[in-house]
Structures are given as C-alpha cells and as structure tokens.
Amino acid sequence: MKIRVHVSLKNGVLDPQGRAIHHALEGLGFAGVNDVRAGRLIELDVADTVSDESLDEMCRKLLANQVIENFRIEKVA
Amino acid sequence: MAFTAAVITFPGSNCDRDMAVAIEAITGGTVHRVWHGDAELPAGLDFIALPGGFSYGDYLRSGAMAARSPVMQSVVAAANRGVAVLGVCNGFQVLTEAGLLPGALMRNAGIRFVCRDVPLVAENSQSLFTARYSAGQRITIPVAHHDGNYFADAETLDRLEGEGRVAFRYAEPVNGSQRDIAGVLNAAGNVLGMMPHPERMIEAAQGGSDGRALFESVLAGLRLAA
Fold it and tell me: Which of A13, A50, B67, B78 has the fewest CB atoms within 10 Å around its CB?
C-alpha cells in the first residue's frame, strides 16, 4: 500500500522558507503570487495489514511535529 | 560526593567535547561520554547535557531523530525523576522534540545561519541553572544555528513568562524567536534548553567567560540539594 503523508505548517506559524521562495519567484519575474507555504511530502510503502490507527500514530509520534505542523494521510493505491 | 555528569553524543553532534571539557573544568566532576545507542545511562548522575551539533544530519526536523533514539528514553526518565538536564543548541531542539520542553525551534526568520556572539539578558536568577546570574544581567554568549527561531502559541508563551520559565532572552533580534526567547525551563525547573552556547564562553581565551556561571549555578544548586 502506497501512502503519502503531507506535512504542512499550521496557519499562523511564520514560514521563513516559504517567504524566501516567494521572494525568489518574484525575483524571477513571476507576478501575482500572493503567498507561498513550504511543506514536506513523505511517501511510505506499507503492508496492507497496517491499520489507519497505526499510520496516524506514525504521524503523531515522528513524521509531524504538532506544535507547528499539521499532517494529512493520503492512500495512493 | 563528586559531581557526576553525562554528555550524550548523537551521530552528528559536534559540541560534545567542548561541553565535556566545560563541565569538567568548572565542576571538577566526572563526565561520562554516552553514545546515543546506549539504552542505559551511567548510575548516579547529577547532570545530563545534550550538546550542539547536527544530530542525524538534521533529517526530518532538527532534533527529531535524536529525540527518538534509545538513550533519550533514559534521559526523559531521568529528567522526570528530577535529574538536571541541559540542552544547548541542537540539544535544545532535541528537548523540544522529546516533549521535555514546550514549543519548537524553526528555521531562522532571516533564513541565514547565524554564527556570532550575541547579547543576552538573564531573565531569571532563581533557577538551578541561573542562580549565579543576577536578574536582568546582560551577558555575551555565542550562537551558531540555522533553526533557532523559538515558536510556541501565545497561551504557552504567556504561561512561560508568568511562571518565570524564560531563562534567557536575546537583547537584540537574532533569529525571529517569539518574544526574543533564547532559553526556557520546564515546569519543575530541572530542564533548561537554550540556543546560545555557554560552553563556548568559559575562559578569557574564548573571548569571555559569561557561560561559567551557568555551570557554577548547577554545581552550587545540586550541592545545596544534596
């Protein structure tokens, strides 16, 4: 089973990397970019027997830091 | 009884030796060097230090991997028993990731790695780690970090300030930290995390000795308690 874990910064948490990317896009001449937030995509290949609860726990215990980040689990196939 | 300390080394730690030298020189105690894969700490520890560096190459998040290493289970247990624990720089990141301290350390607001001496204010002169400073004292300690931007929600920040748990504050903007926080204590007061490196400021040859008082505070505090 292929799993994608999308980790993103919570609303209200300043994202210096997103801001730098935003500046760089503007520097390249791209207009109309209102905001940029940088996150992280983690792809897992897990046995079909791995439960949703277990995936959730992986995210809570390691993959995301819930002080600053949200996560979303997507089952690809 | 002699002062007994442990300095934990993770793969990628690079201030572990400096930390061990500082503790040894100032306390005259015994310093055990402990590898991250060790499940057990030496017996009878008074003090545990988590040093600076780039443990596990800062993979995932700074300090995230180290916080889940075998030895950290023992460090968390020791901290909960009341053993004094100091985390400096990467060690501070590890303590927040391990849940021993609130908040998180994010990428510096200016994106750049910051490596320079910074002015700090010792906010609290009552703690185990800061008793040899006077409240409001200005000191100079170097920082060297990329992820030192302290973040916690407003409620947590208010609680930290209200409970006197902000140990050190930057006296000028350094990395975008909320309320210029450079170091925080846990609720029990036996765990301190800070981004600046006191172990790099312990004698004149290093450009100053403002870091000495931190180790002297711990030594004096633990002697009183014993």
Answer: A50
DSSP state for residue B127 in the 8-state scheme = S
CA angle, B58 then B71 then B22, to 5°: 75
Q: How confident is the model over B58-115, as pLDDT tens digits?
A: 999 999 999 999 999 999 999 999 999 999 999 999 999 999 999 999 999 988 999 9
Residue B226 pLDDT class (50, 70, 90 cuts): low
Instruction: Give the range of the structural domain holding residue A34, as residue numbers without chain letter.
Output: 2-75
Question: Is the Cβ pair A20, B64 closer than 8 Å?
Answer: no
| Residue B197 is among the residues annotated as catalytic for this protein | yes
Return the percentage of chain B with pLDDT > 70, whole number.
Answer: 99
Please judge whether A13 and B106 are an interchain contact, meaning their C-beta atoms are less than 8 angstroms apart.
yes
Domains along the sequence of chain B with CATH? 4-225 (3.40.50.880)
Instruction: Tell if the CB–CB gap between B106 and A68 is shorter than 8 Å.
Output: yes
What CATH number should be reported for the domain holding residue A10?
A: 3.30.1280.10
Distance CA B20, CA B216 (A): 14
Instruction: Judge whether B123 counts as a catalytic residue.
Output: no
Residue A14 pLDDT > 90: no
pTM as predicted:
0.94
Total tally of structural domains belonging to chain A: 1
Q: Do B184 and B190 form a contact (C-beta atoms < 8 A)?
A: no
Q: What is the pLDDT confidence band of residue B33, given thresholds at 50, 70 and 90?
A: very high
